[in-house]
Structures are given as structure tokens and as C-alpha cells.
Fold this sequence. Notes:
Layout: H1 2-7, H2 27-32, H3 36-65, H4 75-84, H5 92-106
Helix pairs in contact: 3-4, 3-5
Amino acid sequence: MVVEYALRDSAKPMGVGGYRVSSALPTQLAAELPTAEEFAREFPLMSVVRLRVEIERELRALLLSRGLDASSVTIAQMLQELEHNGIALENTREFEATLRAMNEAVHRLDVDDKSA
């Protein structure tokens, strides 16, 4: 924090000769960062969003590899495009149910245990 303050308006290259690590978080930063509880609550949502993005990317790649239109906006539309072209994925209905549960979780809706 001291280095940041001291160098904030400097345009000249400088180096720091020494530093010490502190486990104490300055009050100013503590107010801006999420609490451990908030982060723990958000982390699973980030994982679900990342997984959904990966699924979408893989489906788009599959469509492109088959020479099909990959401009569909949603995963459901991509699945329909595959099905329409005679490319049946295993367990498509179960997969769609899983995607619905993922979307509900991402949008902070309660997801029942069976769906989860």
C-alpha cells in the first residue's frame, strides 16, 4: 500500500528495495473484496457458467466439423440442429434436463436435489 501510494503519480521507472508480506488486509481493500462466505457462494456459480461455456463451445465445434450451421444462439438450438440433421447424441433428453438445471442455478433459482 505504501509503495502504491508513493509511486501513484510517478512517471519515472523505480524499484522497490524491500517489502514485507502482511496477513492484515487494509480496511479500504476489505470493503471492496468479497467476504469468504460471499466468495464461497459465488464460486459454484462460476464453475457452472464455465462448464456451460465449454459445452456450448464443444457443440459449436461439432456442428462445424459436420459442415452444419453453427450460428445458433442457444445450446438447445444447437442440439435441435444436430437432431434435424440426423446426428443423435446419446441421452439428449437427459442432457437437456441437466442444462435446464444449470441455467436455473446460474440464474439463482432453487434447483431440486434430483436435478442437481
